[in-house]
Amino acid sequence: MPNTPPVFCQQFTDIAMLSLRPLNLAQDLALLHQWVTQPHAQFWGMQGFSLKQLQQEYQSLLARSDIYIGYANNTACFLVELYEPQLDEIGNHYPVKRGDIGMHILIAQSNNKVHGFTWSVFQLVMNFIFANDKNQRVIVEPDIRNNKIHSLNTKAGFRYQSAVRLTHKTAHLAFCTRDDFYHALNKDNTTMKHIPLSPEQAVSHLTPELWRHVNRLHVRKALSEFAHERLIKPQLTNEDADWQYFELSTDKETIVYRFKAKLGSLNHWHIAADSIEKQIDNQVAELDSIAFICELQHSLGISQAMLPTYLEEIASTLYGSAYKHQLPALTAEQLTTADFQQVESAMTEGHPCFIANNGRIGFDSNDYRQYAPETGAHLQLVWLAAHKDRIVFSTTDDLDYQTLITQELSTHTIESFKQKLLERGVNSDDYFFFPVHPWQWFNKLASLFSNDIADQHLLCLGYSEDEYQPQQSIRTFFNKTHPHKRYVKTALSILNMGFMRGLSPYYMSATPAINDWVAQVVSQDPYLADSGFTILREVAAIGYYNHALEAATDQYSPYRKMLSALWRESPMPSIKSKQRLMTMASLLHIDNQGQPLLPTLIKSAQIDTHTWITKYLKAYLDPLLHCFYSHDLVFMPHGENLILLLEDNIPVKAIMKDIAEEIAILNKDLVLADNIQRLTVDVPDELKVLSIFTDVFDCFFRFVADILDQQNDYSELDFWQQVAECVISYQQSHPELKDKFIKYDLFSADFTLSCLNRLQLSNNQQMIDLADPAKNLKFEGKLINPIAVFNPVKKDNSVTV
């Protein structure tokens, strides 16, 4: 496979990861010649071409066409040509419209035919075309004798218009608009058909070598994070100029672990994965992450009641890790030019602190391939109609239901939904339409809400036309068909990383109002406005009340959080030339070759590390400091919740998302409107600054510092000094907040260690009460503050200039 990054890729269950890369004529000429001269390519019209003739032909085509080689996993196997009809002979045979684009596809001959492969390639190409909003209609002109392609075109929604005589063939002229294609896709429903894996396919990626590899990586992470939280206490046995050597005793007398590590700031353990050795009775044994947890159950303090569920999350995390590592993933270098959603689906690590961070208990092997974000699969959402008597619906001040629905659904879809309600004898004006996760519908709602469905309080309308891509948060979806449309976030009753991923209708009622309030704070603050910091508003939300479940459960029950959804703004409309988006989680990404993305990204920006980090901290940390000190406003600012806007791969601004459920006002005396008063929380003063120390320093910057330190030209000390300089610069620009800077001192010698894994180990189904987030926190001693040494205020209160 060439090193050039794909311009588009999509995972197809049971088929392959399909991708498109620009044609490199010098490298690909021999391959092209092999393809176009085969008997099955007779309609391509180049069977008698020599290499030189083919080269001349494609040099001419490249001057007026975009040509791509298509790959299935790592194997080149199809050719795609996209052209402007007005520059082609076909443009003389019909009135060309703005937004028209011509398409040719050639599938290479294969001895290993896979059912559904050609249709998957066709979907990939059409999705790629319509991912560009400029493309409104696809034109094809296949030879009238090519019956196979006619069948495929019709299946994809092409409308045949007439036969036309071209120079080298008599062709059918056919057209397919964006709506035609997605309507046909919905009708065929190939992307959503639940095609069961064979028993063997469900575990085909679990090879001995790969399983050993992912277990080694996971044991390394467990050793590092458990040692960081002081759940385990490895003993130093030796050291040299570069490494320290440790031994860890377990709850089992005969089992020990040995490894080498470098201890960094914030008690970060950088462990060499290949150094980890497990011994049982002095005999080397294979690393097994599940066994590791069991061997340390007492040390970890996990109860017998919690252990099985935790082990299930660990097993699922390992299963997913093995699947990710066998995918043809983009390299760190390729990710520096990949698009927003390619980067999103390339993320493999999950939360950097949690050990059981990809549990997804509830998904089976088929579900994983359809719905897990790292597969890059696309799906359609199921839409329901809910009677107005059973729902709460709310929007931001600048939106209403009718506007929302007409913007999110095509006219054709809305009319078809209304017709379905009419056929069932109900008035569509009495219902609101909203989307649900397909898994939620088939696994929970269709049965658990059957009483409401039978009584027509809730009606299923089927799939909508647009295709969506699951995001890292797993229950949020990005619209791939129309990227400028809103994200959709849905309730999903699976257990993942300490929570059942439902959505409460009670929270939905205030969600848009909360977002309006935060957006107003951000937009009306001159300092935040100058920083470029923005939020993606959750502009509409809907929640359904199941009366029977409401009566049978308490307010915290996951059964009350099964049927809600919200719509969030897309960042795509704000993108300008030379700008791109990346999830901030990508700064911690390590590719399958062991190369970290962050230093590769900095190198691609063609500026030095110090300058890049300065701009990053200005875009990310600076606004968080201002929100905390000036507004008592705190977010959950981990990597997945932040989107970085880059220009020439240099950070320009940070975009915060996931607002309503994960923000708080640390001022219980602030009076807000009744419907958003829950934002104010009562947190002890000594814990308030942990919103920076824990959420930013310990849970994100700790890993950034380590990645940069391993590059040898930028030490941890360099990084933390820049963090300190960012804090100092902010404080100097806001002398009016001096008292708060003293009260919530970011230069204190140390701060309390708040432990995430201890939280999950104590209750892996409900770690935090959102109404009282400080109540369940787990603390373990202190961490030395890495920026304390750069404190500009001396002991005598004089300021270092």
UniProtKB/TrEMBL annotation:
Pathway: Siderophore biosynthesis. SUPFAM superfamilies: Acyl-CoA N-acyltransferases (Nat). InterPro entries: Acyl_CoA_acyltransferase, Acyltransferase_MbtK/IucB-like, Aerobactin_biosyn_IucA/IucC_N, IucA/IucC-like_C, LucA/IucC-like. Pfam families: Acetyltransf_8, FhuF, IucA_IucC. One of its GO terms (biological process) is siderophore biosynthetic process. GO terms for molecular function: acid-amino acid ligase activity; acyltransferase activity. SMART domains: AlcB. It comes from the Bacteria. Residues 21-68 form the Acyltransferase MbtK/IucB-like conserved domain. PANTHER family: L-2,3-DIAMINOPROPANOATE--CITRATE LIGASE, STAPHYLOFERRIN B SYNTHASE. This is GNAT family N-acetyltransferase.
